[in-house]
Each structure stands twice: as C-alpha cells, then as structure tokens.
Amino acid sequence: MQLRFLCAPAALNLSGLLLAGLLSLFFSACLSACLWQSPDAEVRTSQSIGYNSGYAPEQPIPFSHELHVGTHKIQCQYCHNQVEFSKTSNIPALSTCMNCHQQVATDKESIKKIREAYADNKSIEWVKVHMLPDHVQFNHQAHIQKGVNCQTCHGPIEKMAKVYQFSDLSMGWCINCHRQPENKAPLNCTTCHH
C-alpha cells in the first residue's frame, strides 16, 4: 500500500502550522477540562506523583513518629533497618514492632491490631507517603553513607504525630541540594534516572 500526501511537505506554510498548533491546544484544553472536572479529580491530584508536599494519607493503624522518635528517641535506622544497606528504605517488619510491643502498650487498640497481625503471620498494608515518579531512582543508602540526615528530605519527622511529605521532592528541589558545593553530590542525569 502506498501512502499519498494530500499536500506536498513543501506546501506546509506558517498558517498551516499555526492552525495545527491551535487545534492541538484546543483539544488539550478540552481533554484537561474533562479530566480535572471529573468527580475523582481531587483524589487524583492528592495522589499525583511529584510535588506532593503536605501529602498525609490515612494509615490502617495510626503511628506517631513524634512518640517513637521524638519522645522515646528511637533512631530511624532501628525500624528502617535496611536504609543503610539498600537503595530503598524498608517499612519495618512487624517483628521489629513486637520487640517492644510484646511488653509495651499492649492494651491499646492499635497495638492489639499489630499483635493480631503478627500472630496470624500477616502484614499491615501501610500507605506510601513519599512518592517519586517511576523513572526516578532515589538511593537511600548513598545518602545515609554521606551523612545526610533523614530530616533533610523528610522534614522534622520527630515532631510528626502523622507522617506527611515535607518536601516536594521535585527534580529541582533535589538538584538544588546536589548543587551545594559542601555536598559534593553528582549532577549527572544517570544518578537518578536509570
């Protein structure tokens, strides 16, 4: 099958390109209006990736970093024990929780749920708070080994009764930190984009 052009490529002129651009803009605006005026638009924007500063989803069990980190001074790496050895941070295993909660606060409803899940060999389905686009790879291990404090990216976690995304974690936000001479951090694209 042979394709035929209705007009020769040389025949395209500025007015044709302008018309094509205007039509593209019109259809983009219509599509955008349809998507963002739908009933679930608020949910989509609250769960969008990037620029989620302030995002604080409800968790299946309330967990206070203010209590555990702030009051009881439990180090981040005690619960998130893979952060020093892995590119990704881990959600603590229930066995980590049970190291204390075999004895502590056993009468609280939230702790009873944790104990039941542990006894039944189930996990708690925590909701992810800090989101990055799929094409971005953040290496926790590299940052911890360089001495970057958790609070640099996660904010005053020791004061959060409910965890929320403190920083927008946008590319610009990260690069601004990498550009600081004292950080001696790489600026090449493949550092984060694999």
How does the helix and strand content classify structurally?
A: mainly alpha
Taking the alpha carbons of the first and last residues, their distance comes to: 40 Å
Radius of gyration: 24 Å
Order of helices and strands: HHHHHHHHH
Shape: globular
The number of helices is 9
Largest sheet features:
none
The number of E-state strands comes to 0
Helix content: 40-55%
What's the mean pLDDT score?
Answer: 82
Proportion in β-strands: under 5%
Spans of at least 5 consecutive residues with low confidence: 3-8, 27-48
Characterize the structure shown.
The chain is mainly α and 194 residues long. Helices cover 40% and strands 0% of the residues. It contains nine helices and no strands. It has helices at 14-36, 41-46, 65-71, 76-79, 94-101, 109-119, 140-145, 150-154, 171-178. Helix 5 (94-101) packs across helix 6. It is globular. Mean pLDDT is 82; it is low at 3-8 and 27-48.
